[in-house]
Write a structure and sequence with these properties.
5-stranded parallel sheet; Rossmann fold; alpha/beta; binds xanthosine-5'-monophosphate; 3 domains
């Protein structure tokens, strides 16, 4: 398989670079600069290498550097932003730092005739984000683009096929970024562009048929996209040797448990164990109000239940997980502050002994996982399901979690989702209800009522790292509020959350 290496120097758009490559049906993998050697790069047979941006300055002694021989690696290299400066530095060019030369945001770009800029007009807009800049191109390099502040906005050494751009072609603000990627991949690296999802499915099924032949495999199915796609893919390879354990912790949305059961056991004929553990979870959570404490209990209880059920199956050889590429990359870094400890089944291998773990989706991005899911025939509503946190509705019940509050929340949440879907709101990427611990007075008919306050939350976001509150039409909000207070006994008030992230988070807990 042809592949491109994205050498990671810590920039914030690195995943985006890999995605831009993959959008062209060329496989790309991201490796931190200090986790791969020049030797390994040569051995892996990459068709090209892309050096990413990064927050550092090349002259800083603590900055990430790489073996200078990369310039002679023998395959095309493209440096982006810091990656471009690093190339200049390695080739003995001059990189200087000057506040008054820094550029941020959309910038006018002028390009010269070069294969990297085929189909890019002479003048266009690009996205810049830098303080340091290359004053003079190194020996052997030609300047192939400029901006008013940047004498070397792009450069190349055609002989060695080394290219560098100071701007960011991977972000959409660079008008002709896609063309630049295409030129690099197809005209310079001579990639074929034959990496497609059909091949991925076929290859995976073949691979696991052999690798897991005669083995008993267990998978914790949550009903989320990742574990669902992993389950159907593995089921295609090994059929009844796969058992999916679906722990119903009683913190699911309305009808969700039944839907999962119907889809996986009914439609796909997958060996599914549905464990009804509602009362166990609620017992453990009783009296607990602190969000992280709730998460911890749910995480631990999940493992306990899963372990107990796994034992019932008898001997199990392999644990399968729905890990996807961003999880893999994230877990390779992990210095950032813990805002919320997201609960996943990642802790499982420590407590149960398995011969091995398989992660059939560990090379795919979310959108690629979705596309595999659709090709496997998984229903659209599941594949396009909005994200749902591992601890489920527990993080949407403020204060103590009780069956009463959960049931009220399930109804309110279902009404709100129904109204948004009916109105076909396109920019609501995640929307749900939260039940607070706050009761207030209402009036119904001529009688006083006293019930809970429901919060409606909807966010517009690409990546869930930052999010805007969705400007929902008043009619939709009004309809949802009316229905929730009329149809559900015990709710007197409905409010809409108009906080973005940051400073708030998407979930309330
Ligand atoms: P926050 O609340 O951190 O949410 O802004 C960002 C995205 O992550 C989801 N989320 C979770 N997912 N376990 C998960 O698997 C969790 O504990 C968890 N907490 C939040 C949230 O729904 C949103 O999509």
């Amino acid at each position: 398989m042809q592949k491109i290496l994205v050498l990671d120097f810590g920039g914030q758009y690195n995943q985006l670079i890999a995605r831009r490559v993959r959008e062209n049906n060329v496989y790309a993998e991201i490796k931190p600069y200090n986790k791969i050697t020049l030797e390994e790069i040569r051995k892996e047979g990459y068709k090209g290498v892309i050096l990413t941006g990064g927050p550092n300055s090349v002259y800083d002694s603590t900055s990430p550097h790489f073996d200078k021989e990369l310039l002679n690696v023998g395959v095309p290299v493209l440096g982006i932003c810091y990656g471009c400066q690093l190339l200049a530095f390695m080739a003995d060019g001059e990189v200087i730092s000057a506040e008054d030369s820094s550029e941020y945001g959309k910038t006018d770009l002028a390009v010269f005739d070069n294969i990297l800029f085929k189909d890019v007009p002479e003048k266009s807009e690009c996205f810049m984000s830098h303080t340091d800049y290359i004053k003079e191109a190194p020996k052997g390099f030609a300047v192939i683009a400029t901006t008013s502040k940047c004498p070397v906005a792009a450069m190349c050494d055609e002989k060695r096929k080394i290219y560098g751009v100071q701007f960011h072609p991977e972000v959409t603000h660079t008008a002709y970024g896609k063309e630049i990627f295409r030129n690099f991949l197809f005209k310079i690296c001579k990639c074929k562009g034959d990496w497609i999802m059909d091949n991925f499915i076929e290859n995976s099924v073949e691979k696991y048929k052999k690798e897991l032949s005669g083995k008993k495999v267990i998978l914790a199915l949550s009903g989320g996209v990742d574990s669902s796609v992993a389950a159907v893919l593995l089921h295609r390879a090994i059929g009844q040797n796969l058992t999916c354990v679906f722990v119903d912790h009683g913190l699911l949305r309305k009808n969700e448990g039944d839907f999962v059961e119907k889809t996986f056991r009914g439609k796909f004929g997958i060996n599914l164990m549905r464990v009804n553990a509602e009362s166990e979870f609620l017992d453990k959570l009783s009296g607990v109000t602190e969000p992280e404490h709730k998460r911890k209990i749910i995480g631990e209880e999940f493992i306990r239940v899963f372990e107990r059920e796994a034992k019932k199956i008898g001997k199990v050889d392999v644990l399968a997980q729905g890990t996807i590429y961003p999880d893999v990359i994230e877990s390779g870094k992990g210095d950032s502050a813990v805002i919320k400890s997201h609960h996943n089944v990642g802790g499982l291998p420590d407590v149960i002994a398995f011969e091995k773990i398989v992660e059939p989706l560990r090379d795919l991005f979310k959108d690629e996982v979705r596309s595999v899911g659709l090709k496997l025939g998984i229903p659209k509503e599941l594949v396009w399901r909005q994200p749902f946190p591992g601890p489920g509705l527990a993080v949407r019940v403020i204060g103590e979690i009780t069956k009463e509050k959960l049931d009220l929340l399930r109804e309110a949440d279902s009404i709100f989702r129904e109204e948004i879907e009916k109105a076909e709101i396109k920019n609501a990427n995640q929307y749900f209800a939260v039940i607070t611990d706050l009761k207030s007075v209402g009036v119904m008919g001529d009688a006083r009522t006293y019930g809970y306050t429901i919060v409606l939350r909807s966010v517009t976001t690409d990546d869930f790292m930052t999010a805007e509150w969705t400007r929902l039409p008043y009619e939709v909000l009004g309809k949802a509020s009316n229905r929730i207070t009329n149809e559900i006994n015990g709710i007197t008030r409905v409010v809409y959350d108009i906080t973005s992230k940051p400073p708030a988070t998407v979930e309330w807990e």
